[in-house]
Write a structure and sequence with these properties.
The protein is an alpha/beta fold. The protein has one domain: Alpha-Beta Barrel (TIM Barrel). The protein is about 45% helix and about 15% strand. Strands 1-4-5-6-7-8-9 form a 7-stranded parallel sheet, with helices on both faces. Helix 5 packs across helix 6 and helix 6 packs parallel to helix 8. The two termini are about 25 Å apart.
Length: about 325
């Protein structure tokens, strides 16, 4: 099996020759296209991981300003002819050219609520979501239409799928009824860009924000279209095995993104990987972290240790 075949087998919950793994972290938002390509390939090559997740570290070009509720009807996002979109598709094409076709590329995307939050501030977004939800919904619809077109462009540029960070389901942010009106339809709109295409895939990352202690309603996302699903086990107290019972797709995760994978030592990283696989089993899982690796001093040799521990795992290992 090559790396692409291995990850596809996991997504189909079939047996693999060994357990695949993938980890990632953020890059500087002022990196050039060449620097972004180089950093992604360095991570991939030096760790031997099985997938390339292309980070979205450039801000989405959201247009408009919010000073009153009516302003939400007039926001937007630049189109697929923009320099911002072109920059990202150049990154995809550059990575594909150098990495070849034996590995799957997933382009990270944030939803329209997160795009609005970055552009206008979370306090502003939440204020109007409560006071003028119909106005906010109209604005979010415009952003979702634009991001759906961006997702199509990413796939056309050579991405094998979308790694979608689904936020705004945190405990205490919205009621489920509010979330179903304001957030869910637009997540699904973007996820369907890959879901309706042959040989394109979705990785769903259920993400929380620090203001809400990273806790989110994992159960709200059970029926989202995904081939792999990922969430923070440590922050939600929601195990991988429970996820396997409730999601209809394979699982990505297992490791604390702020723990051994960041701080070491290597023997503890290996033990953590082995413990995850001893508990979960070897079918329908790709080893990863709760979220992006966060903190100072990220080390590629630590990431490689986790990847090797997954690759060399055999049931009963100590």
């Amino acid at each position: 099996m090559n790396k692409a075949q291995r990850v596809k087998a996991v997504m189909n919950r079939e047996e693999t020759d060994y357990i695949p793994a993938g980890f990632w972290f953020h890059y500087k938002p002022d990196f050039t296209v060449e620097e972004m390509i180089g950093e992604h390939l360095k991570l991939y090559r030096e760790t031997d991981m099985d997938v390339i997740k292309i980070m979205q570290d450039y801000a989405y070009p959201v247009t408009g300003e919010i000073h009153c509720a009516d302003d939400w009807f007039h926001i937007g996002i630049k189109g697929t002819d923009s320099k911002e979109l072109k920059k990202m598709t150049e990154v995809i094409r550059g990575i594909r050219e150098q990495a070849g076709d034996d590995v799957l590329l997933f382009q990270t995307m944030f939803g329209p609520f997160k795009a609005a939050s970055i552009a206008f501030g979370d306090d502003v977004l939440m204020k109007y979501s409560k006071e003028a939800p119909e106005a906010v919904r109209a604005g979010i619809q415009k952003l979702a239409d634009g991001l759906e077109a961006w997702a199509e462009a990413y796939l056309d540029a050579g991405a094998d799928g979308i790694y979608y960070s689904a936020q705004y389901g945190e405990e205490g942010r919205f009621t489920k009824e509010e979330w179903e009106q304001l957030v869910r339809p637009f997540d699904l709109q973007i996820l369907q860009a890959a879901d309706r295409k042959k040989d394109k895939y979705n990785i769903l990352h259920i993400c929380g924000e620090p203001e809400y202690a990273f806790k989110t309603h994992v159960d709200w996302f059970y029926d989202y279209p995904a081939d792999l699903v990922n969430w923070s086990v440590k922050d939600n107290g929601y195990s991988l095995k429970k996820g396997r019972e409730n999601f209809s797709c394979a699982i990505l995760g297992g490791l604390n993104n702020k723990g051994n994978i960041l701080k070491g030592p290597k023997e503890e990283i290996r033990k953590e990987v082995q413990a995850v696989l001893e508990d979960f089993g070897t079918k329908g899982i790709m080893i990863g972290a709760d979220c992006t690796i966060q903190g100072e001093g990220i080390r590629l040799d630590y990431i490689r240790e986790a990847v090797e521990a997954a690759h060399t795992y055999r049931k009963g290992d100590e």
